Protein 1
Amino acid sequence: MPIFSDTELQEISELQKRYPEPAATLLPVLWRIQDKRGWIDSDAMEEAAAICQVPKSHVEGVVSFYTMFFEKPMGKFHVQVCTNVSCMLCGGEKILDAMKARLGVANLERTPDGTFSIEEVECMGACGGAPMMAVNETFFEKTSPTEANEVIDTILAKGEIPTPKFVQQMPELSEASNR
Ligand code: FES
């Protein structure tokens, strides 16, 4: 079954008109696939290759290079904990250990019900807020094992990612207020 609807293919076609080569849209095409499916399997890579007019081997290289693309299913809530230098010095590894213990899964694995997965990540560009973790695209900065567990508590209770505390303190920084 094709990944994209006719409308979506039309949108991609419009995007491709902005670039000299269809290959230039490979990253956004892959991102849309992951957004729709949660990961990028072999058939999806084939479809992306056809849309962007590149060999499938090129798509495989791109997907394996960028760690933000998943080659196997991840959880609905993907927990990423940074253990690069700034975060490591501020306790990132303790947060990672706490999340592994809480969720009962190893790095790049997901819980049996598919709700959570965990990933140890390199710098996510939020060093000033070290130690940090992210759940999907929401960043939790200057966090701790206790607060990380509270994030999981909220997701389990409400089925949604809580608002990070720095956004609560400075609502003008929220994504919604910047649109
Ligand atoms: S070192 Fe963790 S966000 Fe940069």
Note: The chain has a mean pLDDT of 93.
Protein 2
Amino acid sequence: MTKLTALIIVFIALSSYTTPTSAHLRIRDPPTRRSPESSYYNQHKCISNNLASPVGFQGKFPYPCRGFARGPALKTWTAGQQIKVEIDPNANHHGGHCELAISYDEKNFAVVYQAFDRCLANCVTGNRAGCTITATLPASLPASKNAILAWSWIAREGNREYFHGCSDIEIKTTKKAKRAAKKGYTGKKMLVANYPGYPTIFEFNNTYNGAELYKRQPSITIAPSKNEKAAKITASAGGCPLPAFDMGDVSKLPKKLPVPNTPCKGNEPARCLHPEDPGLNGLLFIACDGTSWQQGSLSGGLKCVETEKGMMGYSLSAGDLKDDNNYN
Ligand SMILES: *[C@@H]1O[C@H](CO)[C@@H](O)[C@H](O)[C@H]1NC(C)=O
């Protein structure tokens, strides 16, 4: 490598260097799986103290639903009603893109609410309104005792991460809405990004925020399965394991690194640049923004780790999970 290229790389890394934070945002109400606010999860000693970390944090908490087993519905809503989803304030990174989605099977999440650019930018301690998302549940959502509300958030600034949590809810329908609900609810498929195997949305600026990826999402129709039985409630006392996902086999990645600004498809894995170097270079990565390969950098305190599904940020400081009740 010439001195000049080395200098350019160092410059790119420094120009988007941001301060590390260990906690970000998470849903407070309706209580998520393993929520510290829920008496059910408290009784079962099944609390996660890392709910505000991104999915995939330290190879744990996979998408969807952070890998947590389904619990009882802790909130009942009626299709067509206005709902309030309250977020627990913490580092808000000047906001970002938010989605709320509903699922009946934990696989297909159909969007019921979107806010772009500055979603939760005013979510700070003491500003409850700024931490509250108000939405209307579509009237055509079929009733179910085992529905899931999912929230996702991609921050404007900072590490490229995907924040996501699931709350088990019951959905009721009014007599009037029952006919519309027969066909199921059709909405956009919830976007997953900044997670291994999915496209990367880079830090937003005046001309770019990655929102076109949301627009390109296909529509899906969701409905409870016809012979839906009461969902198995597995978050029982003593059975509260912490899920981890398979990090994959690096040797399956193509040997050559992608070239910046050349075309790519969204599903190509993001790669670390010089992953073996724990210093500055280990913070750099190259990822597909849905159209072309772009270089980016992780903020301090994180390291690039490559998996066959793509790169992920990994905390340099061990022990972040030590205070998670599930981690022992
Ligand atoms: C905005 O961000 C995109 C994606 O990282 C980048 O390609 C572009 O050069 C940036 N534009 C400006 C003006 O910084």
Note: The longest strand covers residues 144-155.
Protein 3
Amino acid sequence: MEAIMRGEAAPDENFRANLPAEEKVLNEFAQAAQAPPQEHAIASIAEAHRPRLTLMATQLAELERLLGKTERLSRWQDVRVGLREIASTYSPIRFPGLPEWKRAQFAAQKTRELLTLRKGETRLPLSHLLDRTASSPLAMVFPFEQMLGELGLGSGAAPVIGLSPQVVMGDIGVLRFAVAHQLGHLLESLGGQPTFTCTLLVKDDKLLSGEGERFANAFAVYLLAPLDEVQQLAGAYPRGKDWYWDAAQDVAATFGLSPRVAMTHLLNCLEESNAKQMLDTFRSDSRWWQYREDVRDHVESAWDDERRDLRERVGDLPDNNVQEALRRPRSATFEQFVSEASERGMLEPSTVDDLRVA
Ligand SMILES: [Zn+2]
């Protein structure tokens, strides 16, 4: 509290000096944009953006302490213990032979229990997911248009999840997946595993991800749509020739998934041995486009609160351009806290300015 009153919550010169220079990032961006982004290139450019998220996480926490709004931070202290336990129980060290997706599935099931979702409670709204994990969503422009999000975790702070404006405005299924995916990374980092920079991208409705993304991807989908509940839902359908189209659409609407994730997940949950091949067949079928439209409409109407809720937390969306990517992330909560602290005379006007431009 003392620190923020002296204006130390605003980043000092050292911090600013360590941020990537605008010119350098623009060059890297221009180079990367010419060729299809390679995983290591995405990772290194995305890594350059992590300090901004970490800073925002720390500033939010400082402001919460200053204003005496420490409820979220205490919740984080509690939930962190539970998440850490899950992370260590299902760590790759403990289950060396277990496939990544299986480990993620167990961890996701335990996380659902930790988030006090009862068995048979299918709906997992983003508000519940964010509140229970004490995570704050932010809007942040990333150097790659298709990049979905990134996680920030400063010391003494609760997690922040940076989401690109395209994700916040786009397909609700993708948005939900992006948040759950970052919580997968959160679990990995709490488990003491090397933290990967998120290289999850979305192109059309296709999720592209690197090697290090397997756990977070599987964790996300099983967290949103548990295996036994998908099986139960699918079991209600008589299997006919066109069975999968309707069943996948129902899976998407019930659990709030994107068209492609819903179909892939349905095939995996039913343990189809040639799931990959089946997915390719569906995707090249002329009905795929109609299926995609139908799923989006259904998910949009079944989960229409999701985007509104998230927009409220995130506030104004930044412009979508590379320069914007170099500036601060956006958070409605942050703006509100700064205004409140300023009105209550807790911050010097110069500190307020520093906080707002940092
Ligand atoms: Zn990722």
Note: Strands lie at 136-139, 149-152, 160-163, 201-203, 206-208.
Protein 4
Amino acid sequence: MRKVISFISKEEHYEADAAVLACFDFRFHPALRAYIDFLGKVDLIVAAGGVKQLVAPEHESDREFILDEFLKSKKLHETKKFIPIGHIQCGAYGGVNEEKFYIDELGKSPDIIRKAIPDAKIVKAYIGWDGVYEEEA
Ligand SMILES: [Zn+2]
């Protein structure tokens, strides 16, 4: 295999500051990376639609997969904070261009996460065109 990037990764175990669920939409990755830097050590879960996989999955197994990822983060990295992220104009939602729609969708996620992780601290996050917003849930 051909080495394309030299980079030294840290071997030590870590406790995650948060597990983050985000959409794979590349337009928002620069903002997402900045938010991750703001948060600290993050277990990052990326899936088309992000929060949609929790609140309006195409298949129930999609939701189970995401919740299982959160649980694995908690088990492996003692994660206490879980952050579903919504973003404007998400293709998984048909590209709706209305901030309120995504905030409402995001609002459905804490109850779903708490069913799987009753003691979860949950922060709802949203990426708009001008930045990243968050609110404890
Ligand atoms: Zn999206």
Note: Residues 34-136 form one domain.
